[in-house]
Amino acid sequence: MRSARAILFLPALAVIVLDQVTKLAVIGTLRLYDSVAVIPGFFNLVHVRNRGIAFGLLSQLGQAWSTLLLSATTAAAVILLVLWLSRLRAGDHWTAFGLSLIIGGAVGNLIDRLRLGEVVDFLDVYVGSFHWPAFNVADSAVTVGTFWVVVCMLLSGREEKKRGSRDVS
């Protein structure tokens, strides 16, 4: 039973490894603020750092405070997500997959924050002069995982509603 639950954390482990390997490749290849066009007019590889949270929010707190506050908040969120994941029904693999992606992404960025005091971002998507804020593999995993969990919850609620209406009739 315990090994079956441990398998639920494999996506998180894969995200953490991929996130850290790609960040190390960026650090080793691009100088800070360098940019390489991959698909001109749409996608660059860049090397930027983010001391805040998504889109640079809270970066003005100063490095020590933002590192402490954001690391503690992330650690607490990871603990809550692990508890949620460990308490899922045995067959709820789809929700578990989404939660595992979120956990992996959160841990990937937490590693950066603890090691560097900031997060390495390197994916730059843009159209013309409009640039989406740079992001990384961990950010992508958190976003996809969150969307995935929301969809699972909506579909689960719909199924429960169907079952409830069948039980009444």
Multimeric organization? single chain
* Structural class by helix and strand composition: alpha+beta
Per DSSP, the total helix count is 5
> What is the domain total for the residues?
1
Q: Which parts are unreliable, with pLDDT below 50 for 5 consecutive residues or more?
A: none
Strand order of the largest sheet: 1-2-3-4
Main sheet properties: 4 strands, antiparallel
Distance between the termini: 37 Å
Measured as a percent range, the helix fraction is: 55-70%
Order of helices and strands: HHEEHHEEH
- Cα gyration radius (Å): 19 Å
- Characterize the overall form: globular
How many E strands?
A: 4
Mean pLDDT: 88
Which percent band covers the strand fraction?
A: 5-15%
SSE blueprint and pairings:
Elements (H helix, E strand, L loop, with lengths): L1 H6 L2 H20 L5 E5 L3 E8 L12 H24 L6 H24 L2 E9 L2 E2 L5 H32 L1
Antiparallel strand pairs: 1-2, 2-3, 3-4
Helix pairs in contact: 2-4, 3-4, 4-5
Q: What does this protein structure show overall?
A:
The protein is α+β, with helices and mostly antiparallel strands and 169 residues long. 63% of the residues lie in helices and 14% in strands. It is built from five helices and four strands. The chain has helices at 2-7, 10-29, 63-86, 93-116, 137-168; strands spanning 35-39, 43-50, 119-127, 130-131. A four-stranded antiparallel beta sheet has the order 1-2-3-4.
